[in-house]
Specification:
By secondary structure, the chain is mainly α. It has nine helices and two strands. The chain folds into two domains: 34 residues, no CATH class; 166 residues, Lysozyme. The longest helix is centred in the C-terminal third of the chain and has 20 residues.
């Protein structure tokens, strides 16, 4: 019996006892619910990729994010619950929150960018503090703060998702300065990637 088979057997036994789905990097999700959630599937795929040393999610929006070869993942069901809870409280489409997480950190709760952005939604320390986040690496605090920030940006740009996403990457001042998505290659690529992920998650929503 190889290590993959052994780990699968252990995960299956834990699931049987606890009733909680167990996900192990590099091992496909088993059971009747496997593949029913696009977000869960994307998270599992990213975990598999990172287990092989990849630091790329989607179309490469994670360039500059460090620590992805030793990711700190939380179960997709837990992350989805956090997203849904905070999206509802802030009146934000959960598909948008998921799209930002996917492109910001590749679902890595311990990700740190080269400029110091932290956690799942890559909050800068100053932004995190203003949002009441005391530990940006705590998934619950990070998702709560990041979702609140998205709400603020949507309000600032009259509900324009494209401009809010651009502001999440480049800052609201830059969006206001240029009267639209700033002419930065990174921001333009980021907006394109996040909106593509957003459309994917919206189409998969029940």
């Amino acid at each position: 019996m190889d290590i993959t088979t052994e780990l699968s057997a252990v995960a299956a036994r834990i699931e049987q006892i606890s009733g909680t789905q167990i996900q192990i990097p590099g091992i496909p999700v088993q059971g009747p619910d496997a593949g029913t959630s696009s977000f869960a599937a994307a998270l599992q795929a990213e975990m598999n990729a990172q287990d092989g040393g990849s630091a790329v999610a989607g179309a490469g929006a994670l360039a500059g994010v460090e620590g992805l070869n030793a990711p700190s993942m939380i179960p997709s069901t837990q992350l989805e619950a956090l997203v849904d809870q905070n999206a509802q409280s802030q009146a934000v489409d959960p598909a948008l929150v998921k799209a930002i997480i996917a492109n910001e950190s590749g679902f890595n709760a311990s990700a740190t960018s080269s400029v110091g952005a932290q956690g799942l939604m890559q909050l800068m320390p100053g932004t995190a503090s203003a949002l009441g986040v005391t530990d940006a690496y705590d998934p619950a605090q990070n998702v709560a703060g990041g979702t609140k920030y998205i709400r603020q940006l949507l309000d600032r740009f009259n509900g324009d998702v494209r401009l809010a996403v651009a502001a999440y990457n480049a800052g609201p001042g830059a969006v206001e300065k240029y009267g639209g998505v700033p002419p930065y290659a990174e921001t333009q690529n980021y907006v394109q990637n996040v909106l593509a992920s957003y459309a994917k998650y919206r189409s998969a929503a029940p």
